[in-house]
Amino acid sequence: MCSQLTDLGLTTIIKCCPQLTALSLQETSITGELFPELSQNCLSHLKDLDLSQCENLTDFGLINILKCCPELMVLDLRDTNISGIGEFFSEHCCNNLQKLSEINLKWCNSLTDLGLKNILMLCPNLKVMNLTNFGFAKEMFSDLTIDNMSQLVDLCCMGCEMLTDNELLTIIKSCSSLKALDLAATSITGELLSELSLNYLPKIEDLVLRRCDKLTDLGLVELINKVGNNIKVLKLNDANITGEIFAQINISFSPKLEHLDLTGCTKLSDFGIFSFIAKMGHQLRILKASHTFICGENFGDNFCWENQSKLEQLEFNSCPEITDLGLVAMLSKFGTNLKSLIVSRAKLSLIRCENLVLKNLPALEVLHLSSCPKLGDDGLESILDKCGPRLQSIEMRSIDISGESFQYLSIDASQLQRLALTSCKKLTDIGIIKILNKLGQNIKFLDLTRTQISGESFVEISLNSPSLEELFLSGCKSLTVRGLSLILEKFGGRLRRMILSRTGISKEMISEQCLEFCPLLKYSNIS
Known about the structure:
Layout: H1 7-15, E1 22-24, E2 48-50, H2 59-67, E3 74-76, E4 102-104, H3 113-122, E5 128-130, H4 138-141, H5 146-149, E6 154-156, H6 165-174, E7 180-182, E8 206-208, H7 217-227, E9 233-235, E10 259-261, H8 270-280, E11 286-288, H9 299-302, E12 313-316, H10 324-334, E13 340-344, E14 366-370, H11 377-384, E15 393-395, E16 418-420, H12 429-439, E17 445-447, E18 470-472, H13 481-491, E19 497-499, H14 507-517, E20 523-525
Parallel strand pairs: 1-2, 2-3, 3-4, 4-5, 5-6, 6-7, 7-8, 8-9, 9-10, 10-11, 11-12, 12-13, 13-14, 14-15, 15-16, 16-17, 17-18, 18-19, 19-20
Helix pairs in contact: 13-14
């Protein structure tokens, strides 16, 4: 960043660059007040201007700069001290913002409601606006007219703690073209939307309600019924909803929801999430419910699914209450088209028994089951046996496997490219050989970080022409010089990246092995 750049220096530079289309002045010392000295044609081609973090920029200076930019389309004023107040913001003083389509006013703490109104008056074709942390004042915001905001398609009000249902009503009534609305960390409850008629914001597809602590179940229902008929992405991270009210209400439209994020909704119940999905999830492709306390065990009994599930991604990171029966119940409903299954810190063992019958997962491409301390060889094999030939990535970090029974595994691993067994403390040399013989023919990424392997059993590996490109062995304290030599002799031919820090083998010895077996190696960490 050119923090010492002043108006005079900038003027000199600009006069030498009459064809500029993009200019970043981030964190410079300009005020803009000397810009009347510039020729009106100096920035006549400029389309993208970044003035973020220009702490000395004044309102008068900003207008002087904008007068020189008749073609401007993108303006970043993030973290500046502009207020938007003053006679120089009148339309006759600056009519050069007719083409401006995107403005970033994030963290403009001096900006007032009147200032925002003045700016909007100058930008009749604005499509994207970021108002993160803007301090809405109720008495002024109601004066914003429909015409000022009717062209907006993307509005971010994240962190606007003064934004309540009243301001939300004004936004909804004023922004009929919105496709994306971010209301994260605002003070809305949603309940006052009951006074709206149906089908406001008919074009909205992306609604973010993260960390809306005051949002209620009833308010969420009102929001969805009034603006949700075309929503495809709904993010409710860390909201205080239970979801249970959805069992009692009717949705007045055919839902199009494809992406539902319930991460951190700690009050969410099994009944609530299933009721929500039953009413809104017919087109659902991505479901994230990490950091929740659902277990899933009542899923099979209480959940009625009329159509075949379209779900492709299921994510339950840090869900300590999910059990074997719960996961099996969910997969019985969602497994047909599932491409990605991510579960961590759960009570899973997946040991085969009469009551635990996993459904086939023919479309699965990504399987991540990490930090499940009860999950061992038998459980891992039981789910891998159900995976189809599309599997591309397996991550089993911090689980209780040895790998020694993997010769009995029946799986087509021809598409598998990534295998991570980080911190699997019971993994043995014999076990990793059996795993690689079964799964490793086409893998390009192998992570054995913090395992106890020595590498000396790699003489028994049966792979032909392995295609490994990335190898992580950091923290493998039991790795020997001979073991490393055997690993690199087998896998080093196409290796491009390797991490070998904290193994106890000297840098000189590692470098010697790399020179002998790794002709394509471009990056290595052997500290």
